[in-house]
Amino acid sequence: MADEPLILGIETSCDETGVGIVRGHTLLADALASSVDQHARFGGVVPEVASRAHLEAIVPTMERALTEAGVTLADIDAIAVTAGPGLAGALLVGVAAAKGYAVAAEKPVYGVNHLAAHVAVDTLEHGPLPEPAIALLVSGGHSSLLLVDDLARGVTPLGATIDDAAGEAFDKIARLLGLPFPGGPYIDREARAGDPAAIAFPRGLTAAKDLAAHRYDFSFSGLKTAVARWVEARQRAGEPVPVADVAASFQEAVCDVLVGKALDACRTSGVETLVIGGGVAANSRLRAMAEQRAARHGIRVRVPRPGLCTDNGAMVAALGAHLVASGVAPSRLDLPADSAMPLTTVSV
Amino acid sequence: MASAGAFARQGVTGRRAGRLGWFTVLVLVVDSSTPAVTAALVEVTVSGVTTRAYRCTVDARAHGELLAPQVDAVLADVGARPADLGAIVAGLGPGPFTGLRVGLVTAATMGQVLGVPTYGVCSLDAIGYPAAAGEPVLVASDARRREIYWAVYDGAGQRLVGPEVGVPTAAAERARALAVTAAVGDGAHRYADALGLPLRPEPQYPDGNALAALAAERIRAGAPGEALTPLYLRRPDAVAATARKPVLP
Ligand SMILES: [Zn+2]
Question: Is A105's CB within 8 Å of B113's CB?
């Protein structure tokens, strides 16, 4: 094991500054600095605030990761960094940092795709990923369904959200219900005391007429409006809003669509492994529902522990390790940060 | 990683050797506060600051792509390795945020790897100091949004006022009150009409050699490195969340 390459991963695509260190599939360090508190009063991530925080956090976060892993930058074999997709200015700090480390330590650098990294992180918990697999990636910034045929060289996008990201919907409903930002964990907590069948909220893009064009796409904006209408109607009638029931019914509708479409993709493609990643994968109902329904179809669900589902450096290091092991060539030093990096590009 | 480069020996023994009179530190200089992306290798000795290699590309949209290859190139130009560096100097801005951060994060991360001190210099000083020619001068760089980052320097190149950000006419008014007779920098050229001051052609952008010269005393003294804090001068554009609009009519 000790002769497997030692890989460093840097993540700065949104509001988390992450530095992870892995050796093969073994996680050695996962240091994180978050600017989430600075965004709370704005109700969403402010790009410039995030970029400033990354610049301040990158050196100390690296220091913590190296200490945690008990290694120095001279010991590292390669540096991987999220090159996209994400917030342009935030990505640029991480990419420039990775290059600074690479030039100074004379190491190769890999600019990698953030979404592919969300898939790769599961190898740290559950070992090599059987290919092909279906991946469901759901967070505040993305909601995608992909066919992972070769994680080192390219994945096939099957569908994505056509409006809000799943995590964004959680944030907006949380705000509607007077819960703090980011909304995911609070909705999850409230929902535990509620009845998921109390209110029949709509399931976006699941009607027969939508499936023809959007079989694997998601839409959460109609659901968001439906919840808002329901809550406002209650408020206008002077009736109390049953927060737990609304949270549970809303969460049920989101999870129902996500799991339903992901399992449909597995069955249609004849794939037996479903990987779920991204911040929303930390949602307890999504995890439980996916396990339950997948079992009926003989499909294995792989979800990393919640701490690895949200953005972090370990996921980038995990993908970097996979690229090195697969013999993929490193990036050039002029590699750009690409806020709209397509899923078909795993590394640049 | 062991480097046997000539600069490594000088870098390591430089401080003690300084008393003997042959002190030399190889310094990397970076600045990305303007459309010019600059990397330079400079030798700082007891008595002087000599530029050994210089790369500067003017491209406001490619700081992230350009800087690291330029750092690599200046090292290659003189046959040095990163471990031969004894200090790093970075222009702190002011400058448009996204590009400015590229130089600062490059300097900070390289300093961390190499265990060498990093020193910050106001980027406008690296225009005003070399531009000074006996009379006060206004230095201006482009701040976008029809504003400039500016500062006023005396005839010896010492900053009198600034750095500030604002509209060119306001800067010109302050400059005239300080008996400024000329303006310099890319922002001065761009807003020449609004400033109404005679222009000096050079330097348009922060000068690498000047950045090193302005940090030379700290380098020679072996002063502790500094956290490289950008001179943003503007707050982030962000509005606090307002009350949600109802969906019912
Ligand atoms: Zn993510």
Answer: yes
